[in-house]
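Supplementary Note 3. Input sequence used for the single-chain structure prediction.
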Amino acid sequence: MSRAVATLKPRYLLTTISEETERIEREIFSPHATLAAETKGRERSEDKDPIRTEFQRDRDRIVHCKAFRRLKHKTQVFLAPVGDHYRVRLTHTLEVAQVARTIARALRLNEDLTEAIALGHDLGHTPFGHIGEGILSKELGRRFKHAEQSLRVVEVLEYGGRGLNLTWEVRDGILSHTWSQPDPATLEAKIVRFADRIAYLNHDLDDGVRAGVIAKDDVPAAITKTLGGSHSKRISTLVNGVVDASRGTASVGMAPETLAAMDDLRRFLFERVYLTPLLGPDRERAERIVHRLFAHFREHPDALPPEEQTIPGDPLTRVADFVAGMTDGYAIRTHAALTGVPVSAIWEDREDAD
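The predicted structure, written as discrete structure tokens, is reproduced below.
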């Protein structure tokens, strides 16, 4: 046996791979990073994994859960687009995770925690994007927030009411990923806030151009001058804006000029893409579907699948859980079964319909 092997052997006899990873985190991470070894833990205690740290386990649980798989059939912005390259909620989630990991690595923060939060942040999104969220708010008589529903998914809805039993830090990051929520507790969660906005502003602009709703030249010159004129240049500028403003500090922010340009881009997209009258007919179709589904299951709660009827919560909450968890396609098929309106008729009067 060589001297090198003999020197290394005692360490591996005395520690697990996950413990070795925790040691490496302490050595190389920023002093402001969230260490896996110092997590506040889970609601139900579990034995440690010999290979994965606690945040790595959370990431894996999210990727393997049913709600994550359903994201591939949920709208980002454009409903039932004819084309293979429009973003859906799953591709948005993956883009957020990629941007977030890049920033976390540059700042020497915890990439695993950042990735877990990013992958779980939109698990509670409704069918048809924010359109479904708005209709559920009206039906419930209170604000239905997808961030709160994402937390409910991982705490309650997965595994028939047991949830995923994630760490406190991941759950805090999922709940606080939207800017309307109180500040998150970790810098890693603050990264996801920025990454979410960086990702959706850029891919929604790209999809808006692809759909013919806007043209590249419609973006105000002042925004293009600051952020750049291409998808990759804008993302690079925004990511650098976060890294440059945050490096060596105990906070996560963005360079003021870059932040102002990002806010201007967001206002432009609300005016020209998200709220454009061109998408009005599709919004109305989606609103009718969600409204009728909610109304039906509110009046007939016994029609909910048996597994949904045992989930903790009042009857209206269970209906909201069921409708919010639907994919676009499942919502349309269920609506067709209830109303007799063929699935093929939902989008048949659109100019781009097959």
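The chain has one domain: 15-345. Residues 1-9 have pLDDT under 50 and may be disordered.
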